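Page 42, continued from yesterday. The earlier attempt failed because a stray header line got pasted into the input along with the sequence. Redoing it now with the clean sequence only.
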Amino acid sequence: SIVPYRSFATLNGDILLGSGNDRLFGILCSKLQKPEWAADPRFNTNSVRVANRITLEALIEAETRTRTTEEWLQLLDGSGMPYAAVNDIQATMSHEHVLARKMVQEIEHPTCGPMKLIDTPVKYSHSEPSIRSAPPTLGQHTDEILGDILGMSEGEIGRLKGEGVVS
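This time it went through. Structure tokens are written below.
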């Protein structure tokens, strides 16, 4: 186990902080303006940080809550310590990297109209996998799966539908 290595609340979101060794913990302490924590016998090695996880993480979060996520990102930039903003869905979908890789595609759904879907995360140089169809509506493929694939009769399928087992 490594402590600290988790997300912490900020003024307006969350930030992931990772101090995988004592040197990185020292950097974190410096950036939090708490250099004395690095020498504190409760926190000066990872093994004692693990034993004092609850105390240390509460102290760290008291500090991270004093600034916005963006302020922490700027402060930690170039520090050599692992860190990252924790994005919500909206921030993720509008992130420049997601947009550049065309990870969100808008398609026309026959029932629901236009909708945004997550495209395949795997991109190839000479092949472009993509969204082939809109998501199915409830029960759209019931007859095909039960009849054609599982070999059920129309009567059996009708009975299951009548009992509310399938749509």
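Notes: The CA atoms of residues 29 and 35 lie 5 Å apart.
Reminder to self: strip header lines before submitting.
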